[in-house]
Design brief:
With about 290 residues, the chain is an alpha/beta fold. It contains ten helices and eleven strands. The strands form three sheets. A six-stranded parallel beta sheet has the order 1-11-8-7-5-6. It has a three-stranded parallel beta sheet with strand order 3-2-4, sandwiched between helices. Strands 9-10 form a two-stranded antiparallel sheet. Helix 7 links the parallel strand 5 and strand 6. The termini are far apart. The model has no long low-confidence stretch (mean pLDDT about 100). The structure holds guanine. Guanine (GUN) binds next to strand 4 and helix 6.
Length: about 290
């Protein structure tokens, strides 16, 4: 069993991004990212903090805005409009999910699609579906695809089961894997909580991508001997043996699944670092495109 080291692969991508940032700065353009969090969810706060920190480490411009949970939709959309107009900002990310009173679709649709580094705007969703090369591709599925490519996992002709149908991961993941070319050409099945005989469907996968958002949901009987497993889940669960009283686990029951796999990603240290790496990559791309450099 090979452990896919997402941290190491992400580090390599960050170094490429750092070089791109330096090249852009040398010609007067500093890539800039604005991250916006509404409310005080601790996990979201941690994600937003790490995105801000990574921008600084790579020499990028960063704006982090943490707004109270009772921020109105109008105020949030007004902030998006300001960021759309701010020439220092090339990428805008509104941390998902926002509080229940916010209509996330309406906020996302207010983002300039050229600054939509999350790839959540309908224009970018459509471009991904069309296979358009100038789409912004959502960071988590892009990171999963890159993990497979960098690990030498052949997707062409493989049966990939994507477990989960979210707009952030499952749907775009399926689209990327079925595209023509490197990291694509797969036969894709999208399975979810309502799929009949889910374990058997997952067991037919050469590559299983678990993005169902339930702690350790994928057990040994979901996985074929010799399969590759990519675990997108990040779930905090109680752990009386740790000083914190909790720990992070994926959507895969790692200890029982790993011995059956040809390769598997750990949690933490698998997909998570790749998501941030791809966000930084997309921000550099946005900076280049907004300055007509690619
Ligand atoms: N919440 C979980 N993943 C993501 C992501 O990739 N982007 C945003 N904006 N929110 C998220």
């Amino acid at each position: 069993m090979k452990l896919i080291d997402g941290k190491a692969i992400a580090r390599k991508i960050q170094e490429e991004t750092r070089a791109s940032v330096e090249a852009l700065k040398a010609v007067g353009h500093t890539p800039g990212l604005a991250v916006v969090l509404v409310g005080a969810d601790p996990a979201s706060q941690a994600y937003v903090r790490s995105k801000d920190k990574m921008c600084q480490e790579l020499g990028m411009f960063s704006i982090k805005r943490e707004l109270p949970a009772d921020t109105s939709q109008e105020a949030l959309i007004e902030l998006v409009r300001e960021l759309n107009a701010d020439p220092r900002v090339h990428g805008i990310l509104i941390q998902s999910p926002p509080p229940a009173h916010i209509n996330e679709r309406a906020v996302v649709e207010a983002i300039d699609p050229r600054k939509d580094v999350d790839g959540f705007h309908p224009i970018n969703v459509a471009k991904v579906a069309l296979g358009d090369a100038d789409a912004f591709v959502p960071c988590t599925p892009l990171g999963c695809q890159r993990l497979l490519v960098e690990s030498g996992v052949e997707t062409a002709g493989a049966h990939v089961v994507v477990l989960g149908r979210s707009m952030i991961v499952g749907k775009p993941m399926a689209l990327l894997l079925m595209q023509k070319g490197l990291g694509g050409d797969a036969t894709v099945t999208v399975a979810h909580s309502r799929t009949r005989d889910l374990a058997a469907v997952c067991r037919s996968a050469d590559i299983l991508i678990a993005a169902i958002g339930r702690a350790e949901f994928v057990k040994a009987d979901f996985v074929k001997e010799g399969a590759v497993v990519i675990d997108v889940g990040i779930n905090r669960v109680a752990d009386p043996t740790s000083p914190k009283g909790s720990k992070l686990v994926g959507d895969v029951a790692f200890d029982e699944v790993a011995p059956k796999c040809a390769a598997i990603t750990p949690v933490p240290g698998g997909v998570g670092p790749m998501t941030i790496a791809m966000l930084m990559h997309n921000t550099v791309l946005a900076c280049r495109r907004l300055n007509s450099m690619s």
